[in-house]
Task: structure prediction
Amino acid sequence: MNFEAFQNRVLPAKNKLFRFALRLVGSEEEAKDVVQEVMIRVWNGREQMAEIQNMEAWCMRITKNLSLDRIRANNRRQTQPIDGNFDVRNEALTPHESTELHESMQRINQLMASLPEKQRHVMHLRDVEGYSYNEICDILELDMNQVKVNLFRARNAVREKLTTLNAYGL
Amino acid sequence: MDSKHIEQLLEKYWECETSLEEEKALRDFFNQTEVPDSLKESAVLFRYFEQQRQHKMNDAAFDTSLKSKLQPAQGKMRSLYMSSLRIAAGISVVIASFWLVRTQLRDSASQEVADTYDDPKKAFEETKKALQMISKNFGKAEKAASNINMINEATDKLHSKEETKIDS
Result:
């Protein structure tokens, strides 16, 4: 793989890798570091990666492993993802409405962060990034059954909490 | 898409029976259309997913710093190639000059051989001439040296006389 192929095949995945790393490590700066490390690893090992078919899933798997390494090395609890990512795009909303939307997004974020690790990872990959079950198996190194069970539990937990929150006025 | 269909899809979604296309349809519905109150709680979730999808690194410096980290590997390889070429060129220059000097030395040696005489009598005569010339010159040198000896002896005598005078 030359640099051009790298730019076309690997570099465009950087935002997906970044979001996944952010979900895992919790801080933007660390997520960026992880993505950079993933890119460097893929580039240095490019000769062995010629036969990999799904380059993106492979990069996601490296992202997961490096992020988990980092969490273990830091030996600290995952922090909440930063709140700068809730830019409300609908400008037709009044400030009051947009604040309300911002708050409900924050709640969902907290709700997802409170899920067990595997459920959180599976839900992110499926519902945010839109990966197929097979790809999720590849990325997380889990079997199909575990992926489905974790997704089912995650969605049910979210549904339950959403209903509870709604009862108090989301 | 009517809300009844959406409700059916949602039910399938919670049961994890939706395909990727159906999940995309749900996301599109909740992000584009006015949502009836009964679906508002689910709408927030799907809007959250969509917003997360839009979250980008927003870091122009990332690509440039990454490229600068990746390109040196290429540059290093190129410079390794270049330096090995340079070393090879240096070695070939040394070998070539060594070979040239050696052949020139050999040529000059063979010229000397060609200059000597074929006839042994003539060669003997020439050698005798040369040796005689050397001995003649040696004789001249000896004469000159004996003159120096005379001076040396005279100065020695003077020195010894002076010493006896001082002693007395």
